[in-house]
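Need residues for this backbone.
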């Protein structure tokens, strides 16, 4: 039985405890440690004739009242699915490459990530302020051993046309980075090395000219999809008992400065990492996700995110709305003693309507895609029913199971929300389903 907890508005005092040598107390600021100019790789089209076409998915149907269509089916134990929606298109990424559909689920084109200077684990966005798509590809195998993070930006809202790829060296980087945007900036944070965050200006990147990249020491946190019309780019991290909110803003000389906006105690009782989750017909458990959120949204002066946590020995989904001063507006819990909810992301529209995407698995079922939604005027902390977007058909043969799901706003109308979730096929391998959740 699903349990939905309502948690009222909370307010906490600021803790002035040191976070680390990089950034710690509220009000502290930090300048970029250095800058470098990156020349783009110019692609005159999404897929040149020399790049083999990648044909995956497409073909929408109605399921439980929602438009659903398959995405890539190229996973082994995992597929790491992502989407971005705008310009009439759905851009889809997995570990093996990129695919474009129209918003009716019709396949348009596809290409390997090798066509974008190689790399793995694309995380993507559609920026409605500048009407461009963007994604990253981290390449740890380049011959020069620069390990570039390839930041790819489309020239327009048509992803089939020109793209510009900025290979930013990250020689000490490791897999697991995150990307975000604001009206002015694109930001990326990743584990490994002394400098673990960089930003560049979208205005420069979308022109396909050289772009100045600014590096910051340490990690500012996970970059946020800054949907509000602000130049400032926000970053968020969970540091033990605190939420740390940082923004990159314009300094006096026009270069970016990082400022800690809030460092407040969250006082949440449930924030431990989730346990691994069971599957049907096997003793092999599967990864459940991360306590640290994989996507965050700034909408109407609040940061929204969901994450997987431990609830009474089961993986559960917890989600939050947090003001920029660190005050929690609402928290919700999707949990059950009889099943596990894993690999979650959140999407929020301009009216504060919400979709929470995740997957479900337990001793009597295989990994299956799910989502829940709420309207802005629903009771705080509540969701409506959990909706199935398909049923898994086999058990995975290893712990690793997709580090991500994806949930995003429709960049064209800023109302409809979309989610992509993984599903197991008969062999227990990762496939994907893409769901449109319309709002008035």
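Answer:
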């Amino acid at each position: 039985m699903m349990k939905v907890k309502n948690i009222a508005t909370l307010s906490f005092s600021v803790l002035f405890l040191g976070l680390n040598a990089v950034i710690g107390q509220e009000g502290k600021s930090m300048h970029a440690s250095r800058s470098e100019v990156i020349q783009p790789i110019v692609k005159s089209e999404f897929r040149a004739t020399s790049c083999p076409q990648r044909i995956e998915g497409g073909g929408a149907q109605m399921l439980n009242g929602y438009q659903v269509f398959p995405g890539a089916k190229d996973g082994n134990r995992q597929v790491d699915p992502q989407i971005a929606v705008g310009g009439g298109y759905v851009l889809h990424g997995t570990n093996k490459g990129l695919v474009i559909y129209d918003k009716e689920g019709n396949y348009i084109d596809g290409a390997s990530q090798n066509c974008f200077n190689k790399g793995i684990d694309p995380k993507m966005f559609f920026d409605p302020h500048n009407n461009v798509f963007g994604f990253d590809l981290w390449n740890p195998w380049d011959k020069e051993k620069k390990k570039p993070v390839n930041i790819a930006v489309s020239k327009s809202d048509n992803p089939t046309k020109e793209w510009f790829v900025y290979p930013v060296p990250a020689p000490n980087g490791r897999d697991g980075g995150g990307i975000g945007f604001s009206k002015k900036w694109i930001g990326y944070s990743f584990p490994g090395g002394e400098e673990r965050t960089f930003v560049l200006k979208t205005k420069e990147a979308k022109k396909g000219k050289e772009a100045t990249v600014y590096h910051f020491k340490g990690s500012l946190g996970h970059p946020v999809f800054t949907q509000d019309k602000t130049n400032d780019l926000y970053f968020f991290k969970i540091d033990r008992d605190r939420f740390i909110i940082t923004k990159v803003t314009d300094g006096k000389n026009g270069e970016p400065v990082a400022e800690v906006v809030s460092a407040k105690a969250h006082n949440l009782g449930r924030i431990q990492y989730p346990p691994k989750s069971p599957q049907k017909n096997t003793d092999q458990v599967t990864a459940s996700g991360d306590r640290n959120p994989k996507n965050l949204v700034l909408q109407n002066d609040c940061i929204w995110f969901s994450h997987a946590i431990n609830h009474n020995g089961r993986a559960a989904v917890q989600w939050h709305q947090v003001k920029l001063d660190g005050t929690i507006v609402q928290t919700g819990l999707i949990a059950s003693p009889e099943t596990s909810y894993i690999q979650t992301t959140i999407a929020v529209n301009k009216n504060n309507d919400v979709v929470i995407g995740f997957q479900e698995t337990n001793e009597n079922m295989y990994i299956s895609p799910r989502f829940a939604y709420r309207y802005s005027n629903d009771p705080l902390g509540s969701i409506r029913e959990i909706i199935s977007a398909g049923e898994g058909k086999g058990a995975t043969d290893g712990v690793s199971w997709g580090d991500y799901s994806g949930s995003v706003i429709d960049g064209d109308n800023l109302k409809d929300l979309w989610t992509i979730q993984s599903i197991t096929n008969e062999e227990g391998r990762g496939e994907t389903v893409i769901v449109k959740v319309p709002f008035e």
